[in-house]
Amino acid sequence: MSPIFQRRWVLVTGASSGLGTELCRQLARRGANLVLTARSEARLQELARDLARVNGVETRVVPADLAAPDGARALVATLTELGVPLRHVVNNAGIGSAGAFNDLDAERESAMVELNVAAVVRLTRAFLPALVAARDGGILNVASTVAFQPVPYMATYGASKAFVVSFTLALASELEGTGVRAMALCPGPVRTGFQAAAGIARPGIPLAILSATRTIERALDAYERGERLFTPGLVNGLQTTVARVLPTSLTTWAAKRTMLRLGRAPRL
User: Fold this and answer.
1) Residue 73 located in a structural domain
2) Distance (Å, rounded) from C-alpha 186 to C-alpha 162?
3) Assign residue 115 a region: left if phi > 0, alpha if psi is -120 to 50, beta otherwise?
4) Which of 52, 145, 192, 248 is the most buried (most CB within 10 A)?
């Protein structure tokens, strides 16, 4: 059990798969009651039943499409109507794409900004006042190691995660002394279905790839410690540190070479 999660209600977006499902499992083990949201109600219901049975926690399932312009507002309205007293908000839901921006589907790129950026802002703004009033809880936003340099051939995704990091760090500074925490989690490659959905066949350096279990275990420990920015794994941590000190022109070139090696960039 965890003192900051035990019997506290936690909202997890993108809960039906990947890191979202692992977040739910490990939060339940730490004693959290959970609100699970994603598009797939059937998956959510199955996961919620399993979490309640194994861990003895309470669960609520609220299906929502946060990539839709009114998705976050609808979720907030439903949770307000249910009267769930949230203490932690985990903005995990996200999508990616890979390829030359000129060739990518325009609607998907716009939906990515809505989900990866706008929904994070809307949900944080909706639930933060109650946390500040209670002087308890926090916001955990899932970003990525790609947030620390421009990424040619993943231009929208990289930019969206850069926003999440900047937004979260600014928020954490504003929240000093309020009793409310904020942390950006920047995982590197993780063995989930995200890469396949984004069109990435070979997700990076083998030594940098962590399991979802190890990634989330370390991330929640860091969140409990009150860290503001956390990158799981030694290799991933070194990569992000280097990216933050080297010239942007150099890190952009390196990212472009990596995308070429992974076969996601057109060879002109």
Assistant:
1) yes
2) 10
3) alpha
4) 145
| In-domain check, residue 2 | no
CATH number of the domain to which 147 belongs = 3.40.50.720
Report the candidate in 145, 152, 162 with the shortest Cα–Cα distance to residue 103: 152
pLDDT of 227 above 80: yes
Distance CA 77, CA 188 (A): 33
Give how many domains the chain has, as a whole number: 1
Give the DSSP H or E segment for 197: helix 194-198
What are the CB-based long-range contacts (under 8 Å, 24+) for 243-247? 243/145, 243/148, 243/149, 244/148
Reading the block at residue 56, the tokens are 């003895």
Q: Choosing from 9, 157, 223, 230, which is the catalytic residue?
A: 157
Residue 114 CA, distance from chain mean position: 14
Residue 157 annotated to the active site: yes
Domain limits at 203? 9-261
**Within the chain, what is the greatest distance between any pair of CA atoms?**
57
Please state, rounded to an integer, the average pLDDT across all residues of the chain.
90
Q: What is the pLDDT of residues 66-116, one digit of tens each?
A: 999 999 999 999 999 999 999 999 999 999 999 999 999 999 999 999 999
Is the residue at 266 inside a domain? no
d(CA 109, CA 91): 19
DSSP state of 117: I
What whole-number distance in Å separates Cα of residue 150 and Cα of residue 161? 10
The residues near 74 (Cβ < 8 Å, ≥ 6 apart) are 64
Q: Quote the DSSP letter at residue 118.
A: I
Domain-embedded: residue 3: no
Instruction: Please tell me whether the overall predicted TM-score, pTM, comes out greater than 0.85 for this model.
Output: yes
